[in-house]
Every structure is written in C-alpha cells, then in structure tokens.
Amino acid sequence: MRLPLLDESDRSTVDVETVKGMVDRYLERGFTYFDTAHRYHDEASEPAARKALTERYPLTDCRPTAKYGTLGLFRANQIPEITPIIVEKAGLNVACGAIGIGEITSIPTAPAIADAYYRYDGKFRTSLPLEGTPYSRK
Asked: I want to staple 108 with a disulfide (CB 3.0 to 4.6 A). Which of 61, 67, 82, 95 is the partner?
C-alpha cells in the first residue's frame, strides 16, 4: 500500500498520524493482515508500521490479539457512514480492475480476495465480510 506522505517529493516522510488512523479503521473492520517491507518508502514503511501498529496494539505471531472492546475504537454502530467508490480501469487484470487510492475502503485488497474466491469456486461475492470464506462471520 502507498502510505500517505508529509512531503510528496520525499517518499521517506510517511505521515504516521494518518497511518495510525488507517490502521484503526482497518482493525475496526476485522482485518488483521498487514504487509510491509524494509525497502518500501525508502525504508520508512516498517518504522511507520511499528509506530502505527505494534507500539499501539498487542500482537501474537504478528497478529493483533487485543479484545476489541479494550482498544477504544468505534463500535460498528458508531462508525461514520462511508461511501466507497470503486473505480475500474479497463485492461487492468488485477483486483477486479479496482485501483487503490489511499482510502482504506477503496484499496484493491477486498476485490482481489473476492476475485480469487470467484476463480476458485465460481461464486460472485459483492459484500463484506465475504460469505462462505474464513472471513465470513461465524
């Protein structure tokens, strides 16, 4: 994921406060997988992830483990209404054509996972959490 920057001309100036908000929203929606690498953002991605995630949430085997109610995050009925707008680009054969633009509701991860399941079992899923997968509610 491209992280927000304080200075668009310097890829190492990650806006950690905005990343913290992105991490909070991501966790609120039940996601726990984070991907980063040393070389992203001129080696600033992992320190930003550490500040936004591991310094703020307990982890076990690299996964957040705190009970939801102890995190001080919004409950589902408290989250402001969000209208995701998915923009598709013709000829793009990844993430069902969705392109991430930095807002957590429009990153291509969910469409990519939905597409992978569609290719696997032929079921077209259009809502989250994805039904009939490990992501679905129990």
From this structure: 95
Burial status of residue 82 (CB atoms within 10 A of its CB: 0-12, 13-18, 19 or more): exposed
What is the tens place of the pLDDT at every residue in 102-134?
445 445 567 777 888 888 899 988 887 888 887
Tokens for 1? 């994921």
Strands 59-60 and 63-64: antiparallel
Nearest-5° angle of CA 38, CA 86, CA 131? Answer: 85
**pLDDT at residue number 71:** 66
Strand spans (E) along 6-87 = 59-60, 63-64
Q: How many CB atoms lie within 10 A of CB 113?
A: 18
CB contact at 8 A, 71 and 63: no
Each residue of 25-61: pLDDT tens digit?
Answer: 887 777 777 777 767 778 888 888 888 888 887 878 7
